Amino acid sequence: FHQSDTRRTPTGFPRLGLALIRRIRTMPTPAEEAAEATTAAAALLAALADPGVPEFLVARVRAASSDPNAPTGAVFFEAPLAAVKSLATVMERAKALPAEARYKAFAPKCRLVTGADMESAIGCGLPKTQTSLFAVLANADLAPASNEYAVLVSVALSCGTNVVRGALYDKIDDTVTISVSEIVMDPAAPSVWAMQLKHGPENPNPSEPWLFCLRRGRSRSETMPSFEWGGELRPAPIMTPRNELHLREVPAHVPRPDYAETANPVSEVESKLQQINYQYDEKQLATLRECCVVARGALDATVRAVRPGVTTEALDLICHKFITAHGGYPSPLNYYNFPKSCCTSVNEVICHGVPDGRLLVDGDILNVDVTAFYKGYHGDLNETVPVGRCDANSLRLMMTAYKCLQTGIATVKPGARYRDIGEEVTKVAHARNASVVKSYCGHGIGTLFHCAPNIPHYARNKAVGTMKRGHVFTIEPMINAGDFRDETWPDGWTAVTKDGSRSAQYEHTMAVTAAGVELLTARTETSPNVFPWSDPESEP
């Protein structure tokens, strides 16, 4: 550990100094912080029930927008929780001041949002009740003669998600009535504007240079390496912190796997679990479920923020914040020198894409692969999602990959052969004119990131063993629109299709049960609805 008040223990749990222990005890949980943000947003909205707002806030924000003549819209303000709490207090205490003075400094920190800005402001795939509320508020009448105005407050949490609340106001003479919606957009995503990197490849911070990744993360370069690129995508520089490991910092109290500092997973390499399929008991599965809840939440938080104009580097930061705020460690971080906290694979990238400074563009497809280490267990899952509007072939490819996963899961039950998963997956892929990647497989998981069993997704494989109750593993077929062959970029991690065709993938961690299978990383009610189809079994 880098921190002076910690030492490694054999179990991977740090020994903490008393000062740090006291600080941890006073830290709110993500749920407590979200509740506090809900209250803080309501307080700021209440403080803006002021007759001076239409003239000195709304009018200024509208005039500074890209469309000063927009007929409808809402004032949108986004800030961290501490800033929102302070501002609400200041606004309430400053009501004795002239309205012009009260909003002079506040107005430039706001922006005008319309209905077309919904995904940019709050993220993708939110429930219909929440998106309907945004639409109502963003359509408030902005005409000078209008008596109404609307405000949205987005509160950024330390776990990488946001809480958004809105209110509609009606001004009659010098009296303002306020209607704060009971619907809270939680969890929402940071806005596209908040996710813009203050220091990117074009204007790097001296303490965080942007360099190209090489040699499986063991070195960096200022120039792009030469390579016979098969597709249109090219690597971009990655943010490289100037700390001892050149990695994002992890809070001192978070337990680490053994490779967190050394990049060498000794326990995994030497474990007998590489040769045997371990059967987890119910107590162990209960802890593993907790781990998978954290991993699922991190993927949902990251996917919710996928929009044109954001970088995969910014998405990686959200994933990192979410996992560490919940007491977990991002499993990919420094695993064999992998430099980031999740994998982001764009277009022709099959898997293990390194988050970098490239801006996502409309029409891309993006796979986000998340693994969390929590309470001594790893939970792994991924999803491929469209960025903006995608072409029909890309939508069909994603649907094919999803069907392949579902077909593989349907084979899982006690007594089934592991090799049969690949047979069933290949039938679906070939029937839909796609191919199955052979170089990468599903794997056992639990106390180790990767272990037995090996789960090939292609036909005529030689996987050994049959499934038994308590076995835990992933199924994650990688499906290409073209040929199945792959190659690896000079960074040593990014696997791409050799012919430049696009690739898609979905993954779950699952356990074999007496009745069949339990998806430990299953989607939840709050998971973003970002798949390009409404019914999982329908055609795109």
Characterization of the model:
The structure is a single chain. With 540 residues, the chain is of the alpha+beta class. Helices cover 28% and strands 22% of the residues. The strands form 8 sheets. Strands 3, 4, 5, 6, 7 and 8 form a 6-stranded mixed sheet that branches. Strands 12, 13, 15 and 16 form a 4-stranded antiparallel sheet that branches.
Reconstruct the topology from this structure:
Blueprint: E1 6-7, E2 15-16, H1 18-26, H2 30-47, H3 53-64, E3 74-80, H4 81-93, H5 99-104, E4 111-113, H6 118-122, H7 128-138, E5 148-156, E6 162-172, E7 175-180, E8 185-188, E9 210-214, E10 219-221, E11 238-239, H8 259-262, H9 266-270, H10 282-304, H11 312-325, E12 329-330, E13 343-346, E14 349-351, E15 365-374, E16 377-386, H12 392-410, H13 419-431, E17 435-436, E18 442-444, E19 451-455, E20 472-475, E21 478-480, E22 486-488, E23 495-497, E24 503-505, E25 508-512, E26 517-519
Parallel strand pairs: 3-5
Antiparallel strand pairs: 1-2, 3-4, 5-6, 6-7, 6-8, 9-10, 9-11, 12-15, 13-15, 14-23, 15-16, 17-21, 18-19, 20-25, 21-24, 22-23, 25-26
Helix pairs in contact: 2-4, 10-11, 12-13
